[in-house]
Design goal:
heterotrimer; A mainly alpha; B alpha/beta; C mainly alpha; B: alpha/beta; D-Maltodextrin-Binding Protein, domain 2; five-stranded mixed beta sheet; three-stranded parallel beta sheet; 10 helices; 33% helix; globular; C: mainly alpha; MetI-like fold
């Protein structure tokens, strides 16, 4: 994470004059950044974003409960989507690794289709065309998309386990299922854990799409407060309240992923797996 | 490490928000006139409707489940703090409940978005729906409609100091705000191409832009506009004759004709005994508009 | 099938809207991403902090929240622009964080020895950057930049739900007109596939021509 400039190919180790010059640059750029922040704060005050009319609603218990209920609904959708996408991902990965050509083809088709489709189009399709309730529609959409992405993650994970492991297992007389469950999967999952968690961050972020299909999640609660004429349309205050919570939750999960990655890199149990880079290699991947 | 410090800051903020969890009771101050004396509806405890599946189920349950809108002042609005619904549509739902033999206090309201009104009725998630639901032939294929209980029509909301806009023909060169993609928006775009259209996600933003002189008019069904005008009767007014007809009905399950006919009877009775007028005056009437004559009820036969 | 032929102009408008959003937001994302990447590898501490915070915050912000803040929040801030410009801003800024990370890791894949060798030949900083480091970094970032831009094209759907003229948004109008909803969505899906597959094809060509032989 803390990649300093010194470690890249761009610069030499700076000498005394360069260091002095950099110091001046530093002061100038800091001043510019502070000026920028100051200007934004000035604008906020100027457009009366800190007036009591816009902030008093947050003092009331009813409003706080509304927000907390929304947050709870967000986490509920996330929990369902996470568990189901992991399950779907596992099923699809097994399908793609199957020895039967038909199964392999079908799984590949499903995975490629859902990865190429915008999640929101899926969610709207399920919600509008199939007339499903908001929560199941959201969860189904997220599951199909993230499950497909996770299937690819699992597949590359399994494939990256050292070939000798599989051969050794077969040589011991283990059967296909045994090789998979006792030898390949445990090692692959350990190595892929950081990538899996990063994908779950995507799922957590995407629960906010529920807002667009009137699922009563966190952002929806915010909107209900923000678009109320009585409270002077406190859009900016609402954003100021809910975005730190959203960003904080996602950062916590991202940070957990990096922590796991660091730990795994040191662990001898994952030696047989070449840890795949977090960067997607294919051209239709699931960066979001 | 920088990451960790930032994280700590975020966690701190989260805690601060949670710590504020011991907030004030009640709800934040509300603008506009206080809702007038709402009529009290007499519960018809002797009412029986065994032919209606919806009614029988509700009787067993002990209360009605009603779908409504949550973002239209004085029409169907949910107080964010208390979760209580209020407005003209809500009053209609309450008087229907009383006539069907259920205490209006026991109604469970549920916000249903326009896109899934039909589904909610079809799969029995709600017993009936009252929320700016325009009756048309396409929808009649999917759900049943009692009523109409109100004849709305597309109209214009302007500031009280505006004297040049009296109808859609005066909109040339003026900015008009409406909800993006909605029928009123499309009608203006097609019939009055000289008007400059602005679209927002929500009508409340349009109305705010009107109050701050960023747009000259807001257009949609007059019932919705009257609700906003009632929020600020000194600053806003609804002008001109409605230039479309949107009969609002009560949505019920299509197969449940018994319930539909019972609701029609209940509407007629409440229009006769003055409850309808009282309900209007206590809600949309706060905009300064006198209660209109309710439209004739369309008792189309069961198919 | 009728849905497409009878509403071809509507679909066309939506398709062009998505295309426009994608192209402009991509340009913004690439420029901003490059700026932020150069900040992140700069020898000046405050710029590095700025770049890092930019990336960390935007990468962990749900795009819907960003759209909410930009499309509905900024106008309350006294900034009134067409919805489309707001949507491009939101999409571009969001994607710039991902582009920045891709570019930065691209620069970091260039071995340190390359820079040292260039400098020992007496090349200036500009020459080192322009002739040695960037050409090598460029090759390795083609595929990930392509996939990031595909993600951008897919994310533009969110703008449609916020009532910007866009492919997904056409469903609302068609739904009110009473067309078969399933077919409406099939054609919307085809539209997105055309865009994402074109980007994918474009980057395949780029990769073949300039990419590293692996």
């Amino acid at each position: 994470m803390t990649q300093t400039a010194a470690a890249s190919a761009l610069y030499d180790i700076p000498g005394p004059r360069t260091r002095k010059r950099h110091f001046v640059y530093g002061i100038v750029s800091t001043a510019v950044i502070i000026a920028l922040v100051g200007w934004i704060i000035y604008l906020l005050v100027e457009t009366e974003q800190f007036t009591s009319a816009k902030w008093t609603p947050f003092e009331y218990k009813g409003i706080q409960e509304l927000l907390l209920r929304g947050l709870g609904n967000t986490l509920k959708a996330f929990a369902y989507a996470a568990v189901l996408s992991l399950a779907l991902g596992a099923v699809l990965a097994v399908g793609r690794l199957s020895e039967h050509r038909a199964v392999r083809w079908l799984a590949t088709l499903v995975v490629e289709f859902f990865r190429a489709m915008p999640v929101l189009v899926m969610i709207f399709f399920i919600f509008v065309a199939l007339k499903v309730q908001p929560l199941p529609a959201l969860v189904a959409g997220l599951t199909l998309y993230n499950g497909s992405v996770l299937a690819e993650v699992f597949r590359t994970g399994i494939n990256s386990v050292d070939r000798g492991q599989r051969e050794a297992a077969y040589a011991l007389g283990m059967r296909k299922t045994q090789v998979m469950t006792f030898v390949l999967a445990p090692q692959a999952v350990r190595a892929m854990l950081p990538t899996i968690i990063s994908q779950l961050v995507v799922a957590l972020k995407d629960t906010s799409l529920g807002y667009l299909i009137t699922y009563e999640e966190f952002l929806h609660a915010g909107k209900l407060i923000a678009s109320n004429l009585d409270y002077d349309l406190p859009f900016i205050p609402v954003v100021m309240v809910i975005s730190p919570i959203y960003i904080g939750m996602c950062m916590l999960l991202s940070w957990f992923a990096t922590w796991v990655a660091k730990r795994e890199r040191r662990s001898p149990k994952t030696e047989a797996v070449e840890v795949a880079p977090a960067e997607p290699g294919t051209l239709l991947p699931g960066v979001k | 490490m920088r990451t960790r410090r930032l994280l700590a800051a975020c966690a701190g903020l989260l805690l601060a928000v949670l710590a504020a969890g011991c907030g004030k009771e009640g709800s934040p101050p509300v603008k506009g006139p206080k809702p007038g004396q709402l009529p009290v509806y007499k519960v018809d405890t002797a009412f029986r409707l065994p032919e209606s599946k919806t009614w029988t189920k509700a009787k067993k349950r002990g209360y009605l489940r009603v779908g409504a809108k949550e973002d239209q002042p004085y029409l169907g609005e949910k107080d964010p703090a208390t979760g209580i619904y209020s407005g003209f549509d809500i009053e209609i739902a309450r008087m229907m409940s009383a006539s069907l033999g259920f205490d209006p206090k026991t109604i469970h309201f549920k916000t249903i978005a326009s896109a899934n009104r039909e589904t909610a009725l079809q799969n029995g998630q709600i017993d009936y729906y009252v929320g700016t639901y325009t009756i048309n032939d396409m929808r009649k294929k999917l759900v049943g409609f009692a009523g109409p209980y109100f004849m709305a029509g597309q109209s214009l909301l302007v500031r009280t100091d505006e004297h040049d806009i009296n109808g859609p023909q005066d909109l040339a060169g003026r900015t008009v705000c409406s909800a993006a993609g909605s029928t009123p928006y499309q009608r203006i775009a097609a019939d009055y191409p000289k008007a400059i259209l602005v679209a927002y996600d929500t009508y409340s933003i349009c109305v705010d832009n009107l109050l701050t002189y960023q747009v000259d008019a807001v257009t949609t069904d007059d019932a919705i506009l009257l609700g906003f005008a009632a929020k600020a009767p000194k600053e806003l007014k609804v002008v001109g004759k409605p230039f479309s007809e949107e009969p609002y009905g009560i949505g019920v399950q299509r197969s449940d004709n018994a319930l539909r006919f019972a609701l029609n009877d209940a509407l007629e009775a409440n229009e006769k005994n003055g409850n309808w007028k009282k309900a209007f005056e206590a809600t949309l009437g706060l905009s300064g508009v006198p209660a209109p004559t309710p439209p004739p009820i369309d008792r189309y036969p069961a198919t | 099938m009728d849905v497409l032929t009878e509403n071809f102009s509507l679909y066309g408008k939506g398709f062009l809207g998505t295309l426009e959003l994608t192209v402009y937001a991509s340009i913004l994302a690439l420029v901003l991403g490059l700026v932020m990447a150069s900040f992140r590898v700069a020898p000046v501490g405050s710029l590095r902090v700025f770049g890092t915070v930019w990336v960390m915050v935007l990468r962990n912000t749900p795009l819907t929240l960003l759209f909410f803040a930009v499309l509905l929040g900024l106008p309350r801030f006294g900034l009134v622009l067409p919805f489309k410009v707001f949507a491009i801003l939101a999409l571009g800024c969001y994607t710039s964080a991902f582009i920045c990370e891709v570019l930065r890791s691209g620069i970091n894949t260039v071995p340190q020895g390359q820079g040292e060798a260039a400098r020992s030949l007496g090349m200036t900083f500009g020459q080192t950057l322009g002739n040695v480091v960037l050409p090598q970094a460029f090759r390795s970032v083609i595929p990930p930049v392509g996939s990031t831009l595909i993600a951008l094209a897919k994310n533009s759907a969110i703008a449609g739900a916020f009532s910007v003229t866009e492919l997904l948004g056409t469903y609302k109008t068609l739904n009110e007109l009473g067309y078969s909803i399933i077919w409406t969505f099939v054609w919307i899906a085809v539209g997105y596939l055309i865009i994402t597959l074109s980007i994918s094809a474009l980057f395949n060509v780029l990769e073949k021509r300039y990419g590293v032989a692996r």
